[in-house]
Amino acid sequence: MGQIAIKVNHLGKKYAIGSSINAYRTLRETISERFSIRKQQPQTSEVFPEYIWALKDVSFEVKKGEVLGIIGRNGAGKSTLLKVLSHVTEPTEGLVEIHGRVGSLLEVGTGFHPELTGRENIYLNGAILGMKKNDIENKFDGIVSFAEIEKFIDTPVKRYSSGMYLRLAFAVAAHLEPEILVVDEVLAVGDAEFQRKCLGKMSDVAKQGRTVLFVSHNMSAILRLTEETLVIDKGNLLLRAPTAEAVDYYLSRGLTQEGQHIWQPDEINQKSHFTPVAIRILDRNGYILETVRSTENFSIEIEYILQKPIKGLRVGIYLITSHGEFVFTSFDTDDTEKFETHAIRKAGLYHSRVNIPANILNGGRYILGINASSYRIKTYFHDERALAFNVDHSGAPGTQWPESRLGPIRPALEWEIKKIKNVDK
Amino acid sequence: MVSREPSKNFLIMDKKEKDRKLIIKPSYGWAALNLRDLWLYRELIFFMTWRDLKVRYKQTLLGASWAILQPFLTMVVFSIFFGNLAKVPSDGVPYPIFSYTALIPWTLFSKALQDASRSLVANSHMITKIYFPRMILPLSSVMAGVVDFLIAFIVLLGMMVFYNIFPTVNVWVLPIFLLLALVTAVGIGLWLSALNVLFRDINYVLPFLTQFWMYLTPIAYPSSMVPSKWQAIYALNPMTGVVEGFRWALLGTGQPPGIMTLISSIVAVVLLVSGMFYFRRMERLFADMV
To answer: What backbone phi and psi angles, to 5 degrees, belong to A253?
Structure first.
């Protein structure tokens, strides 16, 4: 204890946007690029690809046995950091020192082959993750029983249900037993039971005194599992703090523009046909406000521009508690009639507005997420932390008792109290 | 008791790898080969080879008989057009066995070349998610071809019985020539697989490359047809040495290994070593570029 497991020093990772988006170059391009650099030296801006720093000047230390959470928006650089730490990609600058074997789980089931059976994939995947054949043999039964696939062990995994597939993949990685376990968002997939199992296994790993780095969007998982958490945004390490503090900072940072979030150009993918403009909370009279009363209805308005007509578009919200738990999801074309009348939305500036009835939400802080997508075709925009707002529960049912009520909702319900008969003593 | 087991394992491993320290930092220029890492992951080479073999013939009607059919059918075509119609000489042995003896190392080589050059791109999902010595991918693609080679070799033995040809006493050198073919295939495979990550043109170049290479190798014709003043240049192709060696050891035709084999071997080793260094140099880009 007290020994350093990971030391990260002024780490930076630069990506060339041009070549990473175009995925690969052809010989001709390289040759002509070389040629044009020589020919027209001064106009370098045309020739050189544009760069983006996915990580910039990140420094931190992790002690042996520490469980560290990493949170940040999509594209903040979390995954890049884990990729550098798991030795998958090289940093552009800086230095990382790692003491002990790293087991990384950047994606569940990497290296699984659909044609091979469960048994074969356990061996193959184990070897890919760096296990020796003897290790795998010793742990084989544990892996199979953790994954609950005893009956299907000799079936090709392409016939597995997605749940079985995930359980098996996680089981192999979880039995790897490295000194440092790096986990990226495994909980984004799988059902509640699977997530519960994964979290349990990971806290076991942590209890055995091993170092765990854990990236997740699931704030309650982060809160449950980690002691300290890093907040990363736009490649920079913003904060390292005890997890509760870090989660609070992350959830409220830069969000509260008095009940409205207006998207800046750098937050948006310019190429998407869907451009979000703003999301805001409106009271009954149409005023933007940050704190709503739970006894009054209010509305949520999303303003956006469609650059081109989109077929089957649905624009909607996620309502999330400050612990990161989802309360509900709702889309503007949930109603089948609306879905048909808006089958194709033409280009233009739009509002999608939804009324949230009174007496539904409990008091507290909530986060609004936004999603614009065509089901199973494309997600045009997704942001799970678009706006934060408060609900004040004064006057709500039950406030005669000044206690806090559990649960995110506080509906006004009709109770019936009836005496059925007298009880003789 | 069962629940105690993991921590016990952990302690053992901790002792063994206690002092293991890894430094990750930007690297520039040529990199060390880091063969130690490759050795640590040697089991993965075996598993990947085994995976390639298992998967290759799944959902095929004829399964592993393709390993025989490919060189065999080529031999039939060659025998009809080169042997019968064009009357290409075959050093005094029946043309079918003359060409088949050359075709089995050639098929091993061309298949290895094809699979190895695509290995990195085909396994890009692994490269971007997990660390392992990347060289394992082209290496195991080449190794998977050896099993096909052995199957095809059994057919050769059958043909030798059919034509009443007995292997010469020199048959023991055969593994050396097999090794020469593998060294060449790995060398070229490393070059092409690394290049393929950066330039997908390799996919288009490859069929032509193998075709030209086949005509530059004495498969359909004996190397004695090449004028003697060109022989030294001709031997720069390591596969010439391999094919000549196979024929000499099995059929007793052609010249015993000599200066030409030496040239072939040197070229093969140069290809391998340069390929390994080039691969290691480009390796750092793979995860970002593939």
So the answer is: -70, 130
Domain count along chain A = 2
Sheet holding A102-105, edge to edge: A102-105, A180-184, A211-215, A67-71, A228-233, A236-242
Q: Which residue has the higher pLDDT, A247 or A360?
A: A360
pLDDT at B5 over 50: no
Confidence at A2, pLDDT banded by 50, 70, 90? low
DSSP class of residue A152?
A: G
User: What value, to the nearest 5°, has the Cα angle with vertex B45 and ends B40 and B46?
Assistant: 110
Residue at A25 is within a domain: no
| B201 contact A CB<8A | yes
- In this structure, the strands spanning A274-282 and A4-16 are unpaired
- The answer as to whether A26 is a domain residue is no
Structure tokens at B260: 């030409």
Buried residues in A181-192 as b, exposed as e (16+ CB within 10 A): bbbbbbbebbee
Kindly provide the residue ranges of all beta strands, DSSP E only, lying in A255-363, ordered along the sequence.
260-262, 274-282, 291-293, 298-306, 310-311, 313-321, 326-331, 344-345, 348-356
* Residue B2 included in any domain: no
Tell me which chain B residue has its CA closest to the CA of residue A106: B129
> Cα(A292)–Cα(B266) distance, rounded to whole angstroms?
81
The answer to whether residues B184 and B177 touch, using CB atoms and an 8 Å cutoff, is no
Read off the CATH number of the domain in which A212 is found.
Answer: 3.40.50.300
From the CB of residue A43, how many other CB atoms can be counted at a distance below 10 Å? 11
Q: Helical H runs in A40-71?
A: 44-47
Q: A89 to chain B nearest CA, in Å?
A: 6
Residues of chain B contacting A104 with CB distance shorter than 8 Å: 129-131
SS3 label, residue B135: coil
The CA distance from B22 to the nearest CA of chain A, in Å, is 5
ipTM over 0.90: no
